[in-house]
Design goal:
This protein has 349 residues and is α/β, with parallel strands linked by helices. It contains twelve helices and five strands. Strand 4, helix 5 and strand 5 form a beta-alpha-beta unit. Helix 7 runs antiparallel to helix 8 (224-249), helix 7 (187-212) runs antiparallel to helix 12 (310-342) and helix 8 packs across helix 9 (252-265). The longest helix is centred in the C-terminal third of the chain and has 33 residues, at 310-342. The radius of gyration is 26 Å and the shape is elongated. The mean pLDDT is 92.
Length: 349
Amino acid sequence: MRFADRFAREFKDAVTPRAALLVVGVLALQLLFIASYVGALHSPKPKDVPFGVVGPTAAVAQQTEQQLAKLPGSPLDPRVVADAATAQRQILDREIDGALVLNARGTTDTLLVASGGGTVLASALENLAGEIDATQQRTVRTVDVAPASPRDFDGLSAFYLVVGWCVGGYLCASIMSISAGSKPTSPPRALIRLGTMALVAIAGGIGGSLIIGDSILGALPGSFWGLAGLGALVTFAVGALTLALEELTGIVGIGLAVLVVVVAGNPSAGGAFPLPMLPPFWKAIGPWLPPGAGTWSARSIAYFHGNDMTKSLLVLSAWAVAGVAVTLLVSSLREKKRASSESPRPAAP
């Protein structure tokens, strides 16, 4: 057989419509990855950052608030706060990201920030406050009410911790499905996979918390068991989501999980740049995806006494419950359909 004929036959066998579609899907995923990461992170700047203003009088505070609201590009979303203690409490409750306390007896004002929520944002607020005060021949001193750990460079440890948990979730789910080949999943097998995913999630949560805590790296403070529990929830939520997508679409589900968690979720998580510094699209979707919800919760546990976590935990729980429900439902419906097709038909009279 001539080489050309053999090559043509092999090409025909190898390049099936299904294989071609999978290659096109991978290419699309690659381009979406580039567009998402570069689009979210190429030009970070503060936008509508929740910001408190404390003045010596209500009139001065309201006047400053109006001035800050008119800054070019709307970097701040200012609101008057009663006093410095209230501003600090609201920062620790994660209601605002910073506050400017005006000094009535001198020319040095105080800026309250929380670098534990993201050092890049804290630095941006410090630069912005310095520029504002400089135009009025005033200076500003910065007080960090929730400082990031000295070993937590740029406040990134929480983000990378959550990324690791997410990777564990979708890789474990993917491996369990790929190892079974193309064999359809039965309800018992689906339960086994979900149970295995739960055990892996618990181990991953404890392991991640152990590595990042004082016992090994000391990169992130906060409750060991709080972070371990969060890690288990993040890992299981992503794993259950991946299993559900695989039940619905087969091997394509792995790519869809990467699309949701990696392509859309990671750049919008507020890791490298906190949410107020992201473009509107990524800022909007971040809190509703596992990486964003996990990163917010991890920082809350580490630096904000576990405050303002309810929404994030509900988001993660919703992904986990939906993943479990879809996995079991689709496998059950498939089992019923298979049983119906295999059952003998009554003989015609």
